[in-house]
Amino acid sequence: MIKSSRIDRWNRRPGRSDCADPTLDRGSAVQERRKGKRMSFGKVAVLGLGKVGKLAAELLVESGFEVTGIDARETDAPFATRAADLKDAASLTEVLKGKEAVLSCLPYHLNIGVSNVAHRLGLHYFDLTEDVPTTKHIRELAKTSRGLMAPQCGLAPGFVGIVGAHLADQFDKVRSIRLRVGALPQHPTGLLGYAFNWSPEGVVNEYLNDCEVIEEGVLKTVSAMEWVETIYIDGMQLEAFTTSGGLGTMCETYADKIENLDYKTMRYPGHVKLMNFFFHELLMRENRAEAGRILTNAKPPVDEDVVYVHVAAEGWHNGQLRRKEFVRSYYPIEIGGKMRTAIAWTTSASVVSVIEMVKAGLLPQKGFLKQEEIPLDSYLKTRTGSHYNTGHRKRHA
User: Which residues contact 397 (CB under 8 A, 6 or more apart)?
Assistant: First the structure.
């Protein structure tokens, strides 16, 4: 049980002193951020021009930013691009000079180097990482940053944490928050019923790294691919199981304030049993790179995908126990005259919406940003965030 009465959204979350006085109301907090703080900015570098990075850059251009896309190879795109060695600090420093913000859409293991350079240059920093050690490093940098350090701005962590906090805020006292996300092929084949539309490195890490949870009021870590449950969305049966990184900083935020908090990945039934066999009985956990190669070769990306989101919070309002849910099925949509996969646009739109809010002064201008601090209503009112209002539909609709 939560011992306090209603927990104010700002007072509830540790770290608010990094950004604004937690005793301020929302309007005052925005004013406080504007005092002596850099707000409007326009020059953004996007690192990594795969499907997600390239789309994020296009969305930024649509939202009025001056974008330079940077990749290890020359890339054709409807915005300025250049090639650079993204593993080299000197090269990164050179290409980021004159920019005001950087969005890293690179593999997670490169983000520590990028964040170091961004910190040194005083840039706003954004990324999509679900890697916990990387986020801890960025959080340390944020203590002395001149710009905002905002990792974990993707789908999960990111969007679902924003939704979860929004649901929790509707209760006087919160009992549980459950976050569930599944990026899947619309037309699954084979026993796995999966396609690697997301980074194989990221998926393998999520399946093998330990997971933070709050269970019966106790903050703990549990193994990935456990706690299997059944969920139905639009009549589709799915299984959900623990995976790492999807909660971002929420366990810290809600520690000692909630009984249960966890994140699970959703897949078609039977998937987790096969993955446990693959990684643990066949010992593929000992060679993550090879595991990713085998899985991607067997289950390459598809164009017709779907992103299922199931977020639920339970708590008391006016003395009555209630449950609030946010359940969506996001499908490919057309952006910029092209069809975009569901996982690409939901991930890209999430981080671009955050960048729009920072530019508008609706979020802190320096320090560390927790995703659960972002107000959902304002987020969905951004130019890019509005895609979440129109990009979901019922199956067979």
Answer: none
- Please check whether residue 138 is in contact with residue 149, taking contact to mean a CB–CB distance below 8 angstroms: yes
Q: How far is CA 1 from CA 168, 176, 216, in A?
A: 14, 10, 8
> Could you tell me if residue 118 is left (phi over 0), alpha (psi between -120 and 50 degrees) or otherwise beta?
alpha
Q: Tell me: the pLDDT tens digits for 27-67?
A: 433 444 444 355 579 999 999 999 999 999 999 999 999 99
Closest CA to 307 of 276, 362, 366, 348: 348
C-alpha–C-alpha distance, residues 194 and 270, integer Å: 11
- What's the pLDDT tens digit per position in 87-123? 999 999 999 999 999 999 998 899 999 999 999 999 9
d(CA 5, CA 47): 44
Number of helices (H), then strands (E), belonging to the chain: the values are 14, 17
Pairing, β 218-222 against β 211-215: antiparallel
User: In Å, how far are 93, 118, 319 from 113, measured between CA atoms?
Assistant: 10, 9, 50
Quick check: 55 and 114 in contact, CB under 8 A? no
Q: Identify the DSSP state of 22.
A: T
> Is the separation of the CB atoms in 46 and 30 below 8 Å?
no
